[in-house]
Amino acid sequence: MGSNQSIGIVEPKTAVLGDLRLDNGSILSPTVVAYETYGTLSPNKDNAILICHALSGDAHAAGFHSESEKRPGWWDEYIGPGKAFDTNQYFVISSNVIGGCKGSSGPMSINPVSGKPYGSSFPFVSIKDMVAAQKLLVESFGIQRLLCVAGGSMGGMQALQWSISYPDVLENCIILASSAEHSAMQIAFNEVGRQAILSDPNWNNGLYEDSATPRKGLALARMMGHITYLSDHKMREKFGRKPPIGNLLNSDFAVGSYLIYQGESFVDRFDANSYIYVTKALDHFSLGKGQELTKALSPAQCRFLVVSYSSDWLYPPSQSREIVKSLEASDKRVFYVELTTNEGHDSFLLPNQRQEDVIRGFLNMPVNE
Amino acid sequence: MGSNQSIGIVEPKTAVLGDLRLDNGSILSPTVVAYETYGTLSPNKDNAILICHALSGDAHAAGFHSESEKRPGWWDEYIGPGKAFDTNQYFVISSNVIGGCKGSSGPMSINPVSGKPYGSSFPFVSIKDMVAAQKLLVESFGIQRLLCVAGGSMGGMQALQWSISYPDVLENCIILASSAEHSAMQIAFNEVGRQAILSDPNWNNGLYEDSATPRKGLALARMMGHITYLSDHKMREKFGRKPPIGNLLNSDFAVGSYLIYQGESFVDRFDANSYIYVTKALDHFSLGKGQELTKALSPAQCRFLVVSYSSDWLYPPSQSREIVKSLEASDKRVFYVELTTNEGHDSFLLPNQRQEDVIRGFLNMPVNE
């Protein structure tokens, strides 16, 4: 990679923003957004880049919260001094989606009326709503134009939505490993995850207590999801048919004990209601395909970079090409790259010199190219 | 298809056979095997074909149990008068695997010691053990040589195991949509299914009562499995992003309500313990790969037909080619066909003129070709 330097210690922040009218008509009040920033906003506020996270991500995209934190933010490989999103040049904003459980308004927020967490009484949140909350955050900095919005997977959907919700705000849009709408198979995997949560005896229609959360259901949802983020190749390489390490976990195979561990550790850091809300936002996001998609994307004015990954079977390159085709059909400026990788859908999160070069090259290109 | 004629009414039968020493050293006594036969055994007993079923299959491969049965056996398209496995020519035997729950010895059998169902105290059963029980059944007819053993998916593993367990019994072996061993990803999907059952509060270490079975866990396992049996293409075609029919089931999408229905109906016809036993048999089946596989297959004397399906991402064509490569490496007689289909792993179960022609052609070919 171009640089191994980290942005260093970063401070998690929370913005309490104005009311937000959601897609479904409900009013979210207040709109709370957890965020982090990296780099310095230029005096004329023209160097801001917004980073959007995927399903289980959060605002902590780069750097460390403390000296003792073991792992940096989820995209530290790409955000920092000298990196693709170069914090020596850009002011990078990363925020947590509403509907999530990492500090932004969501099912775990306290309902001011009842004084208790919303749980499943939190209103349905769409990708468009997530983006609208981010817009409030960006405005709170006095920023009128974003140099770029970038994200992978669900983050890519947000970036795409930005380009049409606020076409005059965006200069560039980077969409990695994403889709203009979920296929039946993508919905199906999410649905089984949701059903696993709903099947948990602690589910209680989403009104569970802290003392008895639907851990087992959420762990199952994560285990299954995790398979879809990897590739056959990667799993062969990493686990093959090896037996489990130790004999602590209830599986005959290494891949089984790994998934059980992933499920168990996920429930300590994620909320079951948020899992349902966010996967529903993913499944309901639909800009259509073909002419319908071309029409949906027609308001966009920015330049696009679309990246897909050869080993990604969950968000296959064909879905990225569908976006590219529709953008080209209405003469948008669009660059498309399919990267050859072995890591499946997770590829966009992992170190990749070529991905770094592609993002850097796109951002450094004169605007009219 | 060549013929739409069904074999008609067939009678489910049960054979109580001798003791069987299982792979793990336990003795199964008695060995009970549920089976059906179609066609007539020739006087010199040289026209018998054994059909092996997949994970959730049973002995009912063709015909109807009664006039009122709505759907015929699972491979009725291929077994019957004038069909690929032509019951005018062949005596077709189809049996239920041991470890299953469709009449053969398995976790639902009564343990003669306790007078109660074995449940999870039933011994571990391997693919080799399933085949050994089938051998006892075949012997009970006085059959010395089988014209063919054929099966898809887990049935293909059984057919492959037959070729090396009893090389002097087999003339032909047909292996469809199968593998010489599960990859990490195949194990992973089964593992999540097992974990779903183990997470069900009714699981009780496999010692559940009829009145409270781990239905929810088993339904989840089936829902997830079902996704892997289909293809992205087939799901787009069948469901796309359509809303559910009616509003009875807890999903926003047709594909979700379909999977919920599949899960619900599966628990009425399958046992959770058997699901665990049979998926473990699948995951533990391992003839190796490359030279190891070549060595494992070296005892085989029969002729092979190996068929894979272009849209099968669960048992991808590469796994079939691995078998073919190893058979060729030790100069076995092997024919390989990759059929172009859209239906995913389930392809081998569905009507396909080309598959019918390939099977028929293989069976009709003079033995030395």
UniProtKB/TrEMBL annotation, chains A, B:
Binding-site positions, substrate: R222, D346
Cellular component, GO annotation: cytoplasm
Record localization: Cytoplasm
One function term, GO molecular function aspect: homoserine O-acetyltransferase activity
Lineage: superkingdom: Bacteria
GO biological process: homoserine metabolic process; methionine biosynthetic process
Catalytic EC class: transferase
Main localisation: cytoplasm
HAMAP family assigned to the protein according to its UniProt record, in alphabetical order: MetX_acyltransf
Record's protein name: Homoserine O-acetyltransferase
